[in-house]
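Review form for a predicted model. The reviewer records the input and the model, then writes brief findings.
Reviewer: anonymous (R2)
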Amino acid sequence: MAHVFIPTLLRAATGGASEVTVTGCSTVREVVDALEELFPGVGAKLTGPNMAIAVDGEVSPIGLMEHVGPDSEVHFVTAIKGGAARPR
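Model under review:
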């Protein structure tokens, strides 16, 4: 069972759940599909351009294709943007 952590800004889409357990998933894509079945509409929000995916503490360079083990922790992390440059 993969343990999925939902970012605060997206918890309204999961009924307030901050952590969800999904079974039978071997890739992040399958995790997203399982979450989409539980919470319709959440998949697009979790895979948007401002999201990063970390599996077992490592940010995934291959995103949705990343392998997920039966005891993996999957974190969807919202991107942090910088501010405008200050004039000198």
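Findings: The chain has a mean pLDDT of 91.
Further findings: The longest strand covers residues 73-78.
Recommendation: see findings above.
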